[in-house]
Amino acid sequence: MTPDNLVPIEIILHKKTRTLEIVFDADKRFVLPCEYLRVFSPSAEVRGHGEGNEKWLTGKENVNILAIEPVGHYAIKPIFSDGHQSGIYTWKTLYELGMKQRENWQLYLEKIKDAKK
To answer: For residue 46, how many other CB atoms are within 10 A of its CB?
Structure first.
């Protein structure tokens, strides 16, 4: 299975634990914190308009997803409790966020630590 032909078989929002569970197949199940999804939003607000223009958000520890809207047959648009709703998460994006969660989170922690210096 390659990221180009992925379609999740299940998407479960766990509001109490502030996580989104995404199941692609029996071997690919990701439980992604809402904070992680928010700070890695694919929106231009967060990613900027090109490499090197990213914004590293802080203060999103308690953010939750209030609702999830489908976008065609290829993505979802989460509505976050802080009002953010412009990020469209394709299946490929969600898969990559799941596969690179540990690495992405470490990068995020380093970036916000550097920003506080």
So the answer is: 18
Could you tell me which CATH number the domain at 7-115 has? Answer: 3.30.2020.30
Query: What are the boundaries of each domain within the chain?
Result: 7-115
Q: Which amino acid is at 105?
A: W
Lookup: tokens for 55:
């914004």
Checking phi first, is residue 23 left (phi over 0); if not, alpha (psi -120 to 50) or beta? beta
Nearest to 110 by CA among 48, 102, 18, 51: 102
Q: Is the pTM higher than 0.85?
A: yes
Q: pLDDT 10s digit of each residue in the chain, 117 long?
A: 555 578 999 999 999 999 999 999 878 999 999 999 999 999 977 877 666 667 888 899 999 999 999 999 999 999 999 999 999 999 999 999 999 999 999 999 998 887 665
**Amino acid letter for position 42:** P
